[in-house]
Every structure is written in structure tokens, then in C-alpha cells.
Design brief:
Length: about 650
């Protein structure tokens, strides 16, 4: 449908409050203003019956009918938090809350009427309508006194009948099981037909995926990403709110304990500028990554002081607002800051980004709650350099206070089903490292994989790609895994590459033990840095390369051991691209390449740096020579970092998970 332009923005953001919020300036009023802006911008795209919101952009693989429902459901969730947070009443002289109630009540009546031209698609096995129905059920519960309880009986019956499509249906065996749980629990709360067995089975199923330390895999396999944040931990909290006295107290206690443990780690995923680490799928949901921070406060299941909870959540909201999300039209696009389709998945439609509505869960907490009144407290990255070992997902986190950058080293998440499912390359899962300051190269139209943060064999048919990740260990400042390339898994060749990462400050040293066939070149890539204004500057030399943005963000790659052929250091170069990165149109990746002159087993040791520390990034000689590696007398590899810190790494880590 063609929409009329949105009305001129009359929602002027409130002034910053540096006294209460010294890090972000944001208060509850800023969150309310942001919600109002998002909701107002959607209205011109509503169908005549207000049951669908058909936004401009590429449709999802489910089609525009489903996408229109998605626009209603995800924005209704945002409206519900805004309505409930205001107690269902307007400020003096305003009708905004009353209008929201009427708007979504009207849409509910039309969408559940099978004879209405804009009625919703039915809920069937594995259909996208399952996802959206869960948001509608949650929104109806949270606004019940002002919306559900005031609907005509006929509308309530139709809504229950539509949601009742869940009963007896099969959800995808992933976080989708929780959609069935919350929707059918809402049906139970309004005395509509439901299956207690299906609710219990869905809750039991997520236990099968709990890996400890607060971490769930999103289904079978090693599928670790932000679905821990905006699904696996969030929906159990929302289910308990709907279930009330029907919920098992012991199960609620288990969910809360896991959430508390998860938040103890999740707080480390946000940079000082509010950027969440850029890893995994559905990243177009942006600041939805903050939802569990509010859920922990809502369920009394957080180890974080209230001022830190708000600092982290507001930091993420402000991060995107300051960088153009939402855009000038008030809409959240399919992208990160700007529209960027290679970031998305086939299931992503124009309204998919509005799962960001989950970030506004904090509005359910009253204005006098400490998360809104306490003075903001610094996040972990604001006060000191950090490193954190996360054995369950197979990750190392390391962050630096001087530049506020968080880096994630990946030795455990590939989002692949268990064997014998075929391996495949996915830039948001199979790279060695991720950060909130940089994004992986994601060429449009499924083009050839970028060289960033991976080690590859170069043959006449192209570059190999990292396949299934087999974790070996994560402890202290080290993590290890082995993998075969996608291509070698497919053809049965399996020499594998074993990699150990050692982190300290902004530095990561990677030790690769690999076997290459004669005539095969080897290439390693560092971080891709990107911006819109101008191509990053580059410097290269024998055995090293770097790329540097105008703001100082620098990616450097240095060969420490093994990067030479017959005494000649590997060539350093920078691979440039345009339109391959969510962070900007111009991107650059430093690489090292060994020519195709050797075969057999080889040990390569590489320094990989991403920094914006002004005391580090301008000093190219120090970046190149400050970190050393050598073979120690005991057979280990000794790594000496610029500040004198020494780490020893076994050079013979077995390339097998059966240790």
C-alpha cells in the first residue's frame, strides 16, 4: 500500500540530564519520547482497519500478508509497554495513551475477523504468525485492564480463537517453543482452550539447551547469540508474569537464577559508546539486546545495580539514535545504522526491526523504581581493561577502557545443526572475532566471503571458509578450537586447522597449526574497519599491514612466527571493498599471505589488533614490534605483550575435541 508522509515531528526529545545520567543524559522521559516517535512514524503505513502495517522495503520470505501482521504485532508490543508504563492514562492535555489503546484495539478487532479484508494469516505449524502471535499475547496481557477487559465479547472470542491456532500446532524446535508457551499461557489466563501439556513441554525443552553459566543454545548444536538475550531469558520472565499463581515456583526460581548469572556476563557486551557486540543473526533488532537488563530488574533477578542497568540500556538506545536509527522518516530500517540488507536474513521483512520494542520493557517498571531514579553507574568497560572466559559458548571477551571497545573471540559458536548436517560459512558466526566497533564483511547477493578475521587456504577455486567449530578449551586469557574448511568437509579431506587465541588489553595473538597441500597459499585477515565518509588509510610492509579510519580506529595485523617463506616475510596488504560492510560504505581489511611454495604442517603466530586508543593507534612502529613470540625451552610458545605480560601456549594442542 502507498502511505501518506508521516506528520511533522512534534515529539521534541527532552533535554539531557547529566546529573542523574552522567554517561548518557537519558532518563525515562527519553525512553517515552523514543517510543512515541517510533509509534507515530508507523501510523501512515497502517491499513484502513489498523490491523496491518505495511512498511516500505524488501518483503520477507513469508510474504507481505505476514509482514503486515508483523508490523502490527511488534509495534503493539511497544505500545503495550508505553500504555502500561503510563498506567493507561494520559498526561494533562494529551490523548496519546488513549489513542494508542483505541488504535490497537481497532486493529485487533479487524485482524481477528476472518471476513475483514486485512485479517491476519492463521497460526499453523512453523508459520511466522507464531512469532507475531506471541508478541500480541504479551501485549494483551500487559494492557489487560485498559484494552482486553474493555473489548466486546465477540472480539475477545475471535482473538482467543485466532491465538488458539497454537493448540496442537508444532513450533520450530528453537526459541519458537517459547512463543507457544506464552501464547497458550495467555489463553489459560482468559479461560480459553489451551494445552497445559504443550506449555510444560515447551518450558522443558529449553532445559535441554541450557549449557551452564547462564547460556542457552538456540536449539540443538552450538547456536550462541543474542537470542539468549531477547528470547531464551526474556520469555520465561514474561511467561511467569502471565501465569501468575499457575506457574511452578521452583521453575521460576531456576529461570531467575539463570538470568542473574547471564546478566553478570551480558553487561560486558556493551562498549563505552553503547554499542553491543556485532555478532549473530537478527542484528537488525539492534537495542533489543538490552531487553534482559530490564527483565532482570523486573523479575528481581539481576546482579547489577540499578544505575548500571540504565546506563547500559540507555547507552545502547542513544548509540543508535546518534547514528541515524531510526532514520529521518522515524522508521527502523533493515540494517544496523543505515539500511543494509546483507545484514539480514530471508525471514527479515520491513517490520522485523521492531523486535527492538523489547528494549522498552523497562517502561513497565514504575517511574519511582531505582532503575529510573538512581544515578547512572559505569559499565565494566568504563572503568578498567577486562578479559572474561566464557566456556559454555566457547568465547573470550576482552575490552579496553582507553577506547571503550569490546572484542569477542569466537571458538565455539557456528550456528550449525549437529553432525552430520553440512557445514556452511556464515560471517556472523564463523569469524574468529567480533566487536561493537567493527562488523564482519558481508558482501551483497551472497558474494564471496571477505578475508576478515579468518585464516584461509587459497587455491585456483578461491578462498576456503571456516567450517564447523570444534571447541577445545576456554580458560584464563586463552581459548582454542579446531575446524576444517567448508570445502574440505564437503570433499572428505580433513587435516584441520587448530587455533589458540591469547588476549591481553587490545591485543589478540592467534596460533594456527595447519597442514597445507603443496602449491596452496595461506592468507590470514585482521579486522575489517569501515566508514561512510572516506576509505580508511592504509600502511603495509613485509610481514604486516594496517588500516586506519579518520577517527583513529585502527586494524593491524602482524606476523610474529612462521610468516616467512625461504627467509622472506609474508607480504602484507590491505583488501578494500565498497558496499560490503554494515558500518560504512568503505571498508578495509589488513591481510598476510604466504605464497604457494610449501606443503606439510606449519605453525603460524599472528598478532591481531583493533584499537582506538590514542596512545596506541598512532604509533605504527609500536603496533608492529611491541608484541613478541618465540619458542621457549620447554617447547611452548612464549608471547610477550608490550607491557611485559607473558603468556605460554602449547604449540601441540591436539586437533580433536576428544581430549
Amino acid at each position: 500500500m502507498t502511505a501518506t508522509p508521516p506528520p511533522a515531528d512534534t515529539n521534541v526529545p527532552p533535554p539531557a540530564d547529566p546529573r542523574t545520567s552522567p554517561f548518557t543524559g537519558y532518563t525515562r522521559a527519553h525512553w517515552e519520547s523514543a517510543a512515541d516517535t517510533l509509534l507515530a512514524a508507523l501510523l501512515p503505513y497502517a491499513s484502513p482497519g489498523l490491523a496491518q502495517y505495511r512498511l516500505p522495503g524488501r518483503p520477507s520470505h513469508s510474504g507481505t500478508w505476514s509482514d503486515g501482521l508483523e508490523g502490527y504485532a511488534r509495534s503493539f508490543l511497544l505500545a503495550a509497554f508505553r500504555i502500561a508504563g503510563a498506567g493507561g492514562t494520559d498526561r494533562r492535555g494529551s490523548t496519546a495513551i488513549r489513542d494508542l489503546i483505541g488504535r490497537y484495539a481497532t486493529g485487533l478487532a479487524a485482524g481477528t475477523d476472518p471476513d475483514h479484508p486485512q485479517h491476519w494469516p492463521p497460526i499453523t505449524d512453523g508459520a511466522q504468525s507464531m512469532v507475531e502471535a506471541a508478541s500480541i499475547a504479551i501485549a494483551l496481557h500487559e494492557t489487560r485492564p485498559w484494552l482486553w477487559d474493555r473489548l466486546d465479547d465477540a472480539v475477545r472470542q475471535r482473538a482467543a480463537a485466532w491465538l488458539g491456532g497454537f493448540v496442537g500446532a508444532t513450533a520450530n524446535d528453537s526459541n519458537w517453543r517459547l512463543f507457544q508457551v506464552v501464547a497458550e499461557e495467555f489463553l489459560a489466563s482468559v479461560d480459553a482452550p489451551h494445552s497445559r501439556a504443550e506449555i510444560d513441554a515447551g518450558l522443558a525443552r529449553i532445559d535441554d539447551w541450557y549449557r551452564g553459566g547462564g547460556w542457552y543454545s538456540d536449539g540443538d548444536g552450538r547456536k550462541f547469540d543474542y537470542y539468549n538475550a531477547w528470547a531464551m531469558h526474556l520469555y520465561p520472565v514474561l511467561w511467569a508474569r502471565i501465569a501468575g499463581p499457575r506457574a511452578d515456583r521452583g521453575l521460576i526460581a531456576t529461570h531467575r537464577a539463570r538470568l542473574r548469572e547471564f546478566l553478570g556476563v551480558h553487561q560486558y557486551f556493551f562498549g563505552s559508546d553503547g554499542a553491543p557486540v556485532h555478532q549473530g543473526r537478527s542484528l537488525t533488532y539492534r537495542y533489543a539486546a538490552t531487553a534482559p537488563l530490564w527483565a532482570g530488574a523486573l523479575a528481581d533477578a539481576t546482579p547489577l545495580p540499578p544505575g548500571r542497568t540504565r546506563r547500559l540500556a540507555s547507552g545502547a538506545l542513544k548509540h543508535f539514535a546518534d547514528r541515524g536509527a531510526p532514520g529521518a522518516d522515524g522508521l527502523l530500517s533493515l540494517g544496523w545504522y543505515r539500511p543494509y540488507l546483507p545484514l539480514t536474513q530471508r525471514y527479515s521483512g520491513p517490520a522485523s526491526p521492531y523486535w527492538a520494542s523489547k528494549a522498552f520493557l523497562g517502561l513497565l517498571l514504575p517511574a519511582h523504581h531505582p532503575v529510573w531514579t538512581a544515578t547512572e553507574e559505569p559499565g565494566p568497560v568504563d572503568t578498567a581493561d577486562r578479559s572474561l572466559a566464557l566456556p559454555a559458548p566457547g568465547w573470550l571477551l576482552h575490552s579496553t577502557c582507553a577506547d571503550g571497545i569490546v572484542r569477542l573471540v569466537n571458538h565455539g559458536s557456528d550456528r550449525l545443526p549437529p553432525p552430520p548436517a553440512a557445514a556452511e560459512d556464515n560471517p556472523h558466526y564463523t569469524r574468529f572475532a567480533y566487536s561493537g566497533a567493527a562488523a564482519p564483511e558481508t558482501p551483497p547477493d551472497d558474494g564471496p566471503s571477505g578475508p576478515d578475521n579468518q585464516i584461509t587456504f587459497l587455491t585456483a577455486s578461491g578462498a576456503s571458509r571456516r567450517g564447523r567449530i570444534r571447541p577445545l578449551y576456554v580458560r584464563g586469557r586463552q581459548a582454542a578450537s579446531w575446524h576444517t574448511s567448508v570445502e574440505r568437509e564437503q570433499n572428505g579431506s580433513d587435516p584441520g586447522i587448530t587455533t589458540v587465541s591469547v588476549v591481553h588489553g587490545p591485543w589478540e595473538v592467534r596460533l594456527h597449526r595447519l597442514r597445507a597441500e603443496s602449491g596452496t597459499a595461506v592468507r590470514e585477515g585482521g579486522w575489517a574497519v569501515a566508514c561512510d565518509s572516506a576509505p580508511p588509510a592504509t600502511e603495509t610492509g613485509a610481514g604486516w599491514a594496517l588500516a586506519r579510519r579518520r577517527d583513529g580506529l585502527t586494524s593491524a595485523l602482524v606476523g610474529l612466527l612462521g610468516w616467512e617463506d625461504d627467509g622472506t616475510p609474508a607480504s602484507g596488504a590491505v583488501v578494500r571493498a565498497r558496499g560490503h560492510n554494515a558500518y560504512g560504505d568503505h571498508s578495509a581489511t589488513p591481510v598476510l599471505t604466504l605464497p604457494p611454495h610449501y606443503g606439510g604442517t606449519r605453525l603460524l603466530v599472528t598478532l591481531v589488533i583493533l584499537t582506538a586508543d590514542p596512545d596506541v593507534h598512532h604509533d605504527t612502529p609500536a603496533l608492529r614490534s611491541g608484541t613478541r613470540a618465540r619458542q621457549a625451552p620447554d617447547g611452548t610458545i612464549e608471547i610477550r605483550f608490550p607491557d611485559g605480560t607473558v603468556e605460554h601456549v602449547r604449540a601441540d594442542v591436539p586437533a580433536s575435541a576428544d581430549r
